[in-house]
Predict the 3D structure of the following.
Amino acid sequence: MISGALRARLRTPPFLWGPVVLVMAAIFIASSIPDLGALPGGMSDKSGHGIGYAVLGGTLLRALAGGTLRGVTWGRGAAAIGLAVLYGISDEFHQSFVPGRSPDAIDIAADAAGAAIAVAAGIAARAWVILRFPPSRGESHP
């Protein structure tokens, strides 16, 4: 079991938003490479976008939820998807300045799909926990 002090520390802005910043930085760096080359395993560019933005969507949902299952809501899920899509749009704009790269609206659709899948998984996980471990009377759920 995690102590109260450690739990409180894990809910501070650096622990909540640090992963979001790291994922955004990784996406920015990858977008800055003129010829990224083939993705591992012959993965398509669109799959790569979907996976990268699923990670971003998941970290955004975690940060917006305050690191708690209780904080995972439809509204915060929608905000996580919206923020991921906005970052995707800004990243496509950024690519327009990178030699050999060009913006692509279909990439933004793949970004949105990836973020939406991750958020849906987070919301489903919260629902599963609530159904599997219903709170006792008078007790709030995690």
